[in-house]
Amino acid sequence: MTELSRLPGPVMDLWEWQYQGACRDIDDTLFFHPEGERGAARRRRAEAAKAICQSCPVMMECREQSLAVREPYGVWGGLSEDERSAILANSARSTTRKVG
Ligand code: SF4
């Protein structure tokens, strides 16, 4: 589940980048897997979504926000759910090593 407490406040400057997203006028079913989608079909859909992200002028902003709020589903900032999970897990391990 998305952690809303991690979202930045309602300051327009923090959100305006979303108006520039390359996916704005694209069917969002390309970015979110339908129930039961698996294997090659899921990989192809995600790769098509990620290709759009690669041409997006706000990819880094989108990626940073999706990681900050731990978006659980979909392609955001050119990253799939699994890729974001791996980044967050690595980040958590690094933090644990520094503390421990
Ligand atoms: S990076 Fe991808 S998901 Fe994010 S706004 Fe751009 S096209 Fe949309």
From TrEMBL:
Cofactor details (free text): Binds 1 [4Fe-4S] cluster per subunit. Following nitrosylation of the [4Fe-4S] cluster binds 1 [4Fe-8(NO)] cluster per subunit.
Sites where the protein binds [4Fe-4S] cluster: 23, 53, 56, 62
Keyword annotations of the record: 4Fe-4S, Cytoplasm, Disulfide bond, DNA-binding, Iron, Iron-sulfur, Metal-binding, Transcription, Transcription regulation
PTMs per UniProt: The Fe-S cluster can be nitrosylated by nitric oxide (NO). Upon Fe-S cluster removal intramolecular disulfide bonds are formed.
UniProt subcellular location: Cytoplasm
Functional summary from the UniProt entry: Acts as a transcriptional regulator. Probably redox-responsive. The apo- but not holo-form probably binds DNA.
Record's protein name: Transcriptional regulator WhiB
Lineage start: Bacteria, Bacillati, Actinomycetota, Actinomycetes, Micrococcales
